[in-house]
Design a protein that fits this description.
415 residues; alpha/beta; Rossmann fold; six-stranded mixed β-sheet; four-stranded parallel β-sheet; binds ligand F0G
Length: 415
């Protein structure tokens, strides 16, 4: 066993060789974490002076000979003054993960996950996906020159994401079932056909994703925000960010952990429902529904890690309706010029709800993580914005219409 790096069960703490291709504990079946023996190595490096990016934080990541990268990370952290005013708080930031190379935070996980896949000499990588994971894995596999198989729920992934996976050359299986079924099938297939699984069940992927939290603090001049809000689907991301911050606290780089707040769509909310009942075990949702297809998940595989993140950080979880998601998506676009996909807008909808409930206070420094780009799902955006104005190519016709619009300026901004 490498004393610097190993896999460890989050339940029975059994340790496994870092090179072992397993995704759950062989002894008790619970989830695994990547563990480091010498995180203190980070205390005397000059990494802190480099510009932000996933691999800036390499003292906190597996050390690999070859890194497969598309220049992921380094997403902007926006101070949202207009939206702050509208919602009645003073200090709102948006970490816009849609600015990653394939348009979602998944790229942070895939640069690490696919690099590990390559170092373990895998020939085929695979995942099940509501869309973004498949787009990201397909891109990184192409760069790594590894074959890629993706299982998607047929008819239930946004068009932009499907276009990406196809264009990057993935072998796509559209499963006649939902994401949860696709995930069970890909796990079985990986075992049977010796493919390397790159869903967030793979603990290496979460190592890359934890850098979202690192970048936020770094971009805030090494100050810790009070609250981080993010959507929960398969529950990997909230777990990853929390783990990363625990590691920073362990070696004294930060002295506290922000409240981790997870938002789920009402029809797909096993974790938020458990939290609302004050429970630490989760009852799965058999038939998850929401128009935010990225988080249309009823059996989140990382639920146990997410519950730890929520309770361990004194955070919370809540639900929002599809209507609230669509409204928040427009509000963010029309106040800040940031266009995110519906799942990502759930964070803004959740923030609004939590301010109204008094769960978030006016002076709290809040960071909403918007996980995917708005262009991923153009259909939903167009449907939610309504018709465009059809007009003859004639200046007099245009004048007639514009004169009506000019009487009520800022139409779009009146959301
Ligand atoms: N936001 C977006 C845009 C996503 O694509 C996902 C997950 C999440 C949030 C939820 O993150 O699973 O870590 O809790 N998408 C996965 C996929 C399931 O297949 O692309 P999580």
């Amino acid at each position: 066993m490498d004393p610097d790096l190993w896999l460890e069960c989050i339940n029975c703490h059994e340790k496994f060789d870092a090179k072992k291709m397993i995704y759950t504990c062989e002894k008790c079946g619970h989830l695994l974490d990547v563990k480091y023996g010498n995180l203190e190595r980070a205390l005397d490096g000059d990494w802190k002076n480099k510009p932000v990016s996933v691999w800036k934080y390499s003292p906190f990541l597996p050390q690999l000979k070859e890194v497969i990268s598309l220049n992921e990370g380094k997403t902007n952290l926006y101070h949202c003054f207009n939206l702050s005013d509208k919602l009645g708080i003073n200090n709102l930031l948006v970490k816009n993960e849609g600015e990653n190379p394939t348009g979602s935070f998944k790229d942070r996980g895939m640069t690490v996950g696919v690099s590990v896949a390559k170092s373990l000499e895998n020939k085929i990588v695979a995942c099940a996906s509501t869309g973004n994971t498949s787009a990201s894995l397909a891109a990184y596999a192409a760069k790594a020159r590894i074959n890629c198989v993706v299982f998607i729920p047929s008819g239930k992934i946004a068009l932009g994401k499907l276009a990406q996976a196809m264009m990057y050359g993935a072998f796509i299986l559209a499963i006649k079932g939902n994401f949860d079924e696709a995930l069970e099938l890909v796990q079985e297939s990986c075992e049977k056909f010796h493919m390397y699984l790159l869903n967030s069940l793979n603990p290496y992927r979460l190592e890359g994703q934890k850098t979202i939290g690192y970048e936020i603090i770094d971009q805030l001049g090494w100050q810790v925000p009070d609250t981080i809000i993010l959507p929960i689907g398969n529950a990997g991301n909230i777990s990853a960010i929390y783990k990363g911050l625990l590691e920073w606290r362990e070696i004294g780089l930060i002295d506290r952990i922000p409240r981790m707040i997870g938002i789920q769509a009402e029809g797909s909310a096993p974790i938020a429902n458990a939290y609302k009942r004050g429970e630490k075990t989760v009852t799965f949702v058999e038939k998850p529904e929401t128009l935010a297809t990225a988080i249309r998940i009823g059996k989140p595989v990382n639920w146990e890690k997410a519950i730890r993140a929520i309770y361990g950080s004194e955070g919370l979880a809540d639900t929002v309706s599809d209507a609230e998601i669509l409204e928040a998506q427009k509000t963010l676009a029309r106040t800040e010029g940031i266009f995110v996909e519906p799942a990502s807008a759930s964070t803004i909808a959740g923030l609004k709800k939590l301010i109204e409930k008094g769960e978030i206070e006016r002076d709290e420094r809040v960071v909403c993580v918007t996980t995917g780009h708005g262009l991923k799902d153009p259909d939903t955006a167009i449907k939610s914005c309504g018709e465009t104005i059809q007009v003859e190519a004639d200046i007099n016709e245009i004048e007639k219409i514009l004169s009506k619009i000019i009487e009520k300026p800022m139409v779009a901004h009146a959301v």
